[in-house]
């Protein structure tokens, strides 16, 4: 649905050229939630502003639907923008307007008649769960409620695409989750394509199917969230993975485990998100006369299933253990890494 | 004390002061907002960014702000004479009053606009708003408390200006105080005029603060 080719933005300041977005090529499918993750200064904020030309691209092309955004004149661009919703880190609501009037603003811009406007605003207020707060001013709302107004406002003109600029970065973890749930909800209900930028791995893990990792204006890795994060290639991606998996000093931990558990076979199980891996451990112990002792591990949930590593000790007769491992390897997508054989 | 003062005359003078202040204030607000908008919109990184034009408007504003008011009145005598065929009376004082205070208000307006969150303007742009929509539905409403308190400050300065204009025959309380107090040594008249001007100033301040507070939903 969205096809970006060779997109570039060069800022010149003090006669120095800065490549904020550097030759970026990307395809985003209709109806998906696509995440762009990067540290501040990576160019992701510029990138998302190029999509609706709040920043003018230096070169490259952006095709949204059938429309080539980069070649639109001012008038057509305004029309196109009405069909692209955008939400912001700091919400950017008009403090002088009530919730209702803030949501009505894009409808006023689009020239929707008053009666229809009121009807649509009420629908949106119900959709984002703000019923009863219609006449409140933004200053009377919490951060999460403000972002709900922002989302309702962005959806007012029934856009096909929603751009989220660090939409949860100013919110506490709990509110972040409720906003993310709302985004997934509207993605499914309305079939809306969502592009979000963030520096929080948690956001990507929770709602995105595909992700692009940005560094210094370039996309250094992209693909399915699970693929990219179960097998990170670039240092920056590895750092983001640590954000959710925790920073473990693997070598030291392994040594400790090896020294403590002298018995049986020690293996590491790598889960990479597949429904077939459900209740793996219980399946194995039911099928084979062995004991499984969980020593260490962390599994986290993504949009396409669980992902993580588990360190286990397998105790029992050697042939049984061998069969169990073969079972895991053949019947599931869990990777088995033998750390120490039976001694 | 106060016994020989003609109440009728002083009420007429008070009325003239109010008339000059209010009419000049209306002119000041209109011209000030237009100039303030131009200053803001043509500044760097804004919608109509234009270095040259910004410099011109800015210079005009600065020059008019720099001319002492009493001299500005004298400078405008030919212009006033051409407009009204006279240089005396409250109406003849209006051009000088407006030109003297509009640049001042323009700067206050510019500051008010600059305080408007850039993110909100960006949000309006992202919704496909025209420049006109941004001006009337974002910039003006979002800066309204600042614009109103600017009107209060400018209005009070204007009351002072009307008193000064009175000295060269514009009428009003300043004129009255000058004529009776200075030329006839009737200090009770000066005192009464002062009290009346203070009352007008306080009422202005009170109304201005009240409206500004009412409008501010931040």
UniProtKB/TrEMBL annotation, chain A:
GO terms for molecular function: ATP binding; ATP hydrolysis activity. Keywords: Amino-acid transport, ATP-binding, Cell membrane, Membrane, Nucleotide-binding, Translocase, Transport. GO terms for biological process: amino acid transport. Residues 2-241 form the ABC transporter domain. This is Methionine ABC transporter ATP-binding protein. It comes from Oceanobacillus piezotolerans. It comes from the Bacteria. Pfam families: ABC_tran, NIL.
Automatic annotation (TrEMBL), chain B:
It is a multi-pass membrane protein. It is found in: Cell membrane. One of its GO terms (cellular component) is plasma membrane. Keywords: Cell membrane, Membrane, Transmembrane, Transmembrane helix, Transport. Its main location: membrane. The chain crosses the membrane at residues 17-40, 52-77, 89-108, 189-211. One of its GO terms (biological process) is D-methionine transmembrane transport. Coiled coil: none annotated. It comes from the Bacteria. Residues 14-208 form the ABC transmembrane type-1 domain. Belongs to the binding-protein-dependent transport system permease family. CysTW subfamily. This is ABC transporter permease. It comes from Oceanobacillus piezotolerans.
